[in-house]
Amino acid sequence: MKSNLAAIFLCLWVMIACSDHSFKEGKYFAGGKYVTAETLNKGKMTYTEYCMACHGVNGDGKGLSAKGLVPPPRDFTLGLYKFGQVVSGELPSDQDFKHIIKTGLNGTGMLAWDMSDEQMDSVIQYIKTFAPAAWEGKDKKIGEAIVVTPDPFGEAHKSAAIERGKEVYHITGQCQTCHRAYVSKEELSAMNKKINNQAITDFDANLYEVKSQDSQHNVKTVPPDFTWHSVRSAKSVDELYVRIAAGIGGTAMPSWKDTITNEDIWAVSHYIRYLMDMKDTPAREELIKRLQ
Predict the structure, then answer these.
(1) Residue 35 is inside which H or E element, if any?
(2) Which residues, given as ranges, of the chain have pLDDT below 70?
(3) Which of 21, 40, 88, 130 has its CA 20 to 30 A from that of 48?
């Protein structure tokens, strides 16, 4: 009986959601892409079936299942996207959307979805309609894709990459300003003296803590502790390279593409993957104990 009532409720919910605001004409989106009304209506149906429970009827991230989800579902009405393969703040490509739909986001409620190509394409176009100011119009531009260059280190020089990445993370990029440090104060001072010819004598009180950050998504964001948390959009060194080069849209994580060298982006990618591999190992316990 309960299952029948649940099925009836779901059908009514879908009927209500789909009954209004059907598209009568097509739209032009960023990059000069024209999408027919038929595709947008199919996208709405797909969105209702797969996405609405979390992202909400209006695409604002306030669906029935959103309560209690950490991080909260993306608010599509803002036109801000965290994990595109473009410089943060630029509009992602359809391929970027497809990648996230297919793979999900690690450690979040965003699962990997098994959709047909038609469903995937139509729902991506429909999602754009939630942020017309960002997407609609032939004049809007898609961001230029971050190109993954050949790894200058590779497996043969992985150790050297990790050591260089440690310096980039802690000194060049000052990543511990938002994330946390993974070296002792003595090591940090020695690295700074090597690179900047000056020892460090004054250390932040929260050097070994992650620090919550303001964001344009109307929620606080918490940078990951790489030895413990999942990195939402990256697992491999190549994927980390993209995320560091691109940044994370609408957050304090900037694009490092034109700030540090390409070789340094690869080096810090290797170092972060090295830290990620520590999770649930004695090596992490030893590191944390040493830094206490």
Answers:
(1) strand 33-35
(2) 1-21
(3) 88
The continuous run of DSSP H or E covering 28 comes out as: strand 27-29
SS3 214: coil
Instruction: Name the pTM for this structure.
Output: 0.90
For residues 100 and 95, what is the distance between their CA atoms, to the nearest angstrom? 9
For residues 274 and 226, give the distance between their C-alpha atoms in angstroms, rounded to a whole number: 9
Res 292: pLDDT: 85
Residue ranges covered by each domain of the chain? 2-135, 155-291
Residue 59 is encoded by which pair of tokens?
Answer: 């695409």
Indicate the SS3 state at residue 67: coil
Closest CA to 42 of 17, 28, 23, 56: 23
Quick count: other Cβ atoms within 10 Å of Cβ 257?
Answer: 15
> How many CB atoms are closer than 10 A to CB 89?
16
Report yes or no: 72 and 78 within 8 Å, Cβ to Cβ: no
Half-sphere exposure of 258 (CA within 13 A, CB side): 3
pLDDT of residue 244: 98
What angle do the packed helices 185-196 and 158-167 form, to 10 degrees?
90
Asked whether the beta carbons of 249 and 82 are under 8 A apart, the reply is yes
Cα–Cα distance, 292 to 286 (Å, whole number): 10
2-135 and 155-291 agree in CATH topology: yes
* Topology (CATH) of 155-291: Cytochrome Bc1 Complex; Chain D, domain 2 (1.10.760)
Q: What is the CATH number of domain 2-135?
A: 1.10.760
- Secondary structure of residue 211 in the 3-state scheme: coil
| φ, ψ for residue 29, nearest 5 deg | -115, 175
Rounded CA separation 25/43 (Å)? 14
N- to C-terminal Cα separation, the chain: 56
So what's the pLDDT on residue 12?
Answer: 47
